[in-house]
Write a structure and sequence with these properties.
Elements lengths: L3 E2 L4 H13 L5 E5 L9 E3 L3 E5 L2 H4 L2 H16 L2 H26 L4 H35 L2 H15 L7 H4 L7 H11 L4 H10 L17
Parallel strand pairs: 2-4
Antiparallel strand pairs: 1-2, 3-4
Helix pairs in contact: 1-3, 3-5, 3-6, 4-5, 5-8, 6-8
Length: 220
């Protein structure tokens, strides 16, 4: 992906204004070409955000602003830094454990190799999903419009043609929660009653969102 720095323009000005309102300091706003894959997405970095150049084709201006708020939330909550520290911490601990393990339990090495591959991935992906819930929460609280946030997410989902939900096992190795889980969380945060949520989903051509007993707890 190519990140082109926006030096002027309405979109850049809106992003910086929202950042100021949210108490977030950013240095740059990037425009990312959608490319041949027609990527439709947005990105939050340590001190910048990136937006694909086709967002306006799929989202209204208000919805784009809601997406910007989500990415600014990632910056505000320092998710990029936390993600890096998490990776460094996990693999530092693994290095120490594997060194000791190799000295005392070499016969269990095949099992250890499996754990080394899937254990860190599971932990990293778990926290990545929690970061998404946290950014969704800040987005809803900042805009005060949970329905707008849900509609923005639904339009992004339709543009990307991703699945509505994953199996429990497959979601363990996803960086983002399923659309169903995120919508449920947004509806709870915004106190959207079931009839209103059903109307929003019907408008988007989504017939139902499966209910889950486990409620995701956002990390701050």
């Amino acid at each position: 992906m190519k990140f082109n720095k926006l030096k002027s323009g309405e979109l850049r000005n809106r992003a910086f204004k929202m950042a100021s309102q949210m108490g977030v300091t950013i240095a740059r706003v990037y425009m990312v070409p959608a490319g041949k894959g027609h990527l439709t997405n947005a990105f939050g970095m340590s001190n910048a955000i990136g937006l694909t150049d086709n967002l306006g084709k799929h989202l209204t201006k208000a919805q784009v602003d809601s997406v910007i708020a989500h990415e600014l939330a990632h910056v505000k909550l320092r998710h990029a830094r936390k993600h890096l520290l998490l990776i460094l911490g996990i693999f530092s601990i693994l290095t120490i454990l594997l060194f000791r393990f190799s000295l005392y339990a070499a016969h269990l090495r095949p099992l250890a190799q499996i754990a080394v591959i899937f254990g860190p991935l599971g932990i990293i992906y778990y926290f990545s999903r929690q970061f998404e819930y946290s950014a969704d929460r800040v987005e809803v609280e900042f805009t005060g419009e949970p329905e707008l946030a849900i509609r923005s997410l639904l339009n992004l989902h339709k543009a990307g043609e991703g699945p509505m939900q994953y199996t429990r096992f497959s979601e363990l190795f996803m960086t983002h929660p399923s659309l169903a889980h995120r919508i449920e969380a947004m509806a709870r945060i915004g106190q959207i009653p079931p009839p209103q949520l059903e109307r929003i989903l019907n408008d988007a051509g989504v017939t139902e969102v499966a209910r889950h007993d486990a409620k995701p707890v956002p990390l701050t």
